[in-house]
Amino acid sequence: MDMRNLRFALKQEGHSRRDIFEVLTKHAFPQSHNLNTYIYVSAKLWVLYNVLQGLPNERWRVTFINEHYGLCDTYPSLLVVPYNATDDDLKKVAAFRSRNRIPVLSWIHPENQAVIMRCSQPLVGMSGKRNKDDERYLDIIREANGQISKLTIYDARPNVNAVANKATGGGYESEDAYPNAELFFLDIHNIHVMRESLKKLKDIVYPNVEESHWLSSLESTHWLEHIKLVLTGAIQVADKVSSGRSSVLVHCSDGWDRTAQLTSLAMLMLDSYYRTIEGFEVLVQKEWISFGHKFASRIGHGDKNHADADRSPIFLQFIDCVWQMSKQVFYKVRPFQLLLLIILQVNQISNPGMLLSNDQPNPVEQRYMELLALRDDYMRRLEELQITNNSKIPNSSASSTSPSQMMSQVQTHF
């Protein structure tokens, strides 16, 4: 995903080319990058559900059902769920959600109590299976904010893709099964489309940029089109919660790629805390690392198989979306934009033990530590850039601008 190309010039008479090649190969593609041995940093884990959100309360509770990752090995150990849903209910719902990724709380509006929930697709299949426990659970979520509006479900996928997923046992929520919910498809394409889009983008900027055909070449990559779709989807989520006073449920297929993009971007729009350097760290740890984004597979560092179909610039795309927001609305100051660049740089480090594992014994704990292991590095680099703003970005949570008014255009970095 890193577009930089490094070249080494070696003298032929030195006979050192093979030795250097072997050393580079050893460090670039370590045989042990997928073992369960990692670099850890002794640090206190972030409190994911801030007391400022008033959680837990009479409508929402913290469950320890996943304390040992027995319910879902790609979810954090602590989950916030509706108070009226028992742990037995959660187990039954898990059986009907892909990879047991049940609907859980990401964010709650401090005033109207509408919430952003996240999960994976329901296991409907070609036969249109139903699950009364799942249907009841979504009703409990809808009722938890005290509003009479329907629960809004945002399926990140194109409609045709969601239908196609039925053939492999997946699918989406039907109106018949969920009469108190409304479903919208956001038309965001899958990891394979995004991977090819980035490849095309790299081709038009490296090794040379043809300025005479720049606009047509850029359009042919569809990169900005994808960025706009992700941002538009996040705006819909944020607007529905803020202005529509309706709770929303966000999912894609497995709920760890497009879902993470949408929930975290919407939370950035709605909550000024996540627009601080510390808050942004927490956001990435919570919505990306702890909820199971496959950093190792998506980045692909340490793996010689460059044709691996699991590689995709999902996190890079999220950072690009945040950069678009920073240029137009939220953070018209240089420090935050520098932070985004530093995060991307350290995200590309091919260091076994940082971001290069998906299948460790305690997967979520490892994901927590992954970014913590990088935190000191990029904070040090921020200091080197002489950032003296006390790691704070202008507080814009009280702005009267609604999420739907925030994004006017998207642009490239070139």
UniProtKB/TrEMBL annotation:
Chain segments carrying region Disordered: 390-414
Highest taxon of source: Eukaryota
All residue ranges annotated as the Myotubularin phosphatase domain in the record: 40-414
Domain named Tyrosine specific protein phosphatases: residues: 221-283
Active site: 252
InterPro entries documented for this protein: Myotubularin, Myotubularin-like_Pase_dom, Prot-tyrosine_phosphatase-like, Tyr_Pase_AS, Tyr_Pase_cat, Tyr_Pase_dom
Main location: cytoplasm
GO cellular component, one term: membrane
Example GO BP: phosphatidylinositol dephosphorylation
Keyword Membrane: yes
Keyword set includes Lipid metabolism: yes
Keyword annotations of the record: Cytoplasm, Lipid metabolism, Membrane
Membrane topology: Peripheral membrane protein
Subcellular location field: Cytoplasm; Endomembrane system
Binding-site residues, substrate: 190-191, 252-258
GO molecular function, one term: phosphatidylinositol-3-phosphate phosphatase activity
Similarity field: Belongs to the protein-tyrosine phosphatase family. Non-receptor class myotubularin subfamily.
Listed name of the protein: Phosphatidylinositol-3,5-bisphosphate 3-phosphatase
Organism the protein comes from: Pavo cristatus (Indian peafowl)
